[in-house]
Amino acid sequence: MPRPPLGALRGKRVLVTGASGAFGSASMRVLRHLGADAVGLDRKPDDAGRVLACDVTDEDAVRRAVGAATERLGGLDRLIHFAGVGPAVDVGAMPDQCVREALEVNLLGTWRTTAAALPALVADKGRVVVTASLLAGLPLPFASAYVVSKRAVTAYADSLRAEYGTHVGVTTVHPGYVDTPIHDDSRAAGVSLDGLVPAERLRDTVLAVLRAAAAPRPPRDVASTALGTAALRLTRHAPGLVDRVTATEIADLVREGRLSGGEIARGLHERHGAPMPTG
Question: What range does the record give for the signal peptide (predicted)?
Answer without folding.
Answer: none
